[in-house]
Amino acid sequence: MPGNDATVRQCRRKMLGRHRGLSVVSLAFAVDQKGILPDHMIAALAGDGAILPAYDFVPDQIQPASLDLRLGEVAYRVRASFLPGPDTTVAERIDHLKLHEIALGDGAVLETGCVYIVPLIESLALPDHIAAAANPKSSTGRLDVFTRVIADETRGFDHISAGYHGPLYAEISPRTFPVLVREGSRLSQIRFRRGNALLDAEALRALHARERLVDDGDADVSEGIAVSVDLSGLGPDGLVGYRAKRHTGLIDVERRAGYDVADFWEPMRSRKDQSLILDPDEFYILASKEAVQVPPDYAAEMVPFDPLVGEFRVHYAGFFDPGFGYAGAGGRGARAVLEVRSREVPFILEHGQIVGRLVYEKMLERPHSLYGERIGSNYQAQGLKLSKHFRA
Q1: Which residues pair with 197 in a beta bridge?
Q2: Which CATH architecture describes the domain 43-194?
């Protein structure tokens, strides 16, 4: 029918315009505009048909600088993790590798040590100048649920090339706790960007001078804000973190404040030498020594301190939204919670040891809502904090 596509786009814009009160218009950019798309531009991207959800977005699905991705109706247990590579779709690889299918409509348990592929409710039809990157949500990382996003014909996880048209899939592998998920559960999030707006060392130093990104006058900002681990002990009991217990019950990812900490975690106290030996294949929740903040016109991401230091992995969930820890959004600087897993050998962490760097990117525009403002942000002004599933 003539004009039918335009009518569909108009209806979609009206629907998205009601989502958190965002004003939705078609996107247009100047040639030299670069940066991360904020909430209202994500809504506009969907309104233009570049994001194609099988069902309407739910409230709070659009975050200040990202979009939560929802699991579809079926999970495929596969023999091993994989990348499709050029000229191959994820669906084709699933056909060769799947062991069985699991319906998620009424909920299903994903077991530890297994690999699952789940088609997502959202697919993409990106314009040639918009690329995307995915990451686990904070609560997913703090449960030690290893989650990555895969697209067709790709050579890497969590990266979607500009102009990509096709479905998205989540690879899910619970490492410590079995988890109960269902259709619509949100384990991953995706950011959209135009060009490269990563701040170089000079721009980052200037931003730190204006905004004081970290509560350390001698902060190392040469290649991103250096983030170190705090093993001095917090509070009168000297708590430094938690080590996950083995052979626990399952965790329903939709259940907030539903579990006792003692059933799943062993608290760890500070030692006289302020060190911690990471045992192989154990999972820890620790906190950064620094309190950090992300100003409203920027987004940040935690990256490895040194890719050559492979003894441990830090921070599965790397996205920090505009307003994180920011005083104007209800924060006073916030500790970065560190999800830490040692690898093949025991490894000693020491107080103040740098474990990651926080790199900053410019937003295309300031989000309509910042992290901590009216969107149910769970970790604003946080210290050492477990995921939202556990009772404080």
Answers
A1: none
A2: Distorted Sandwich (2.70)
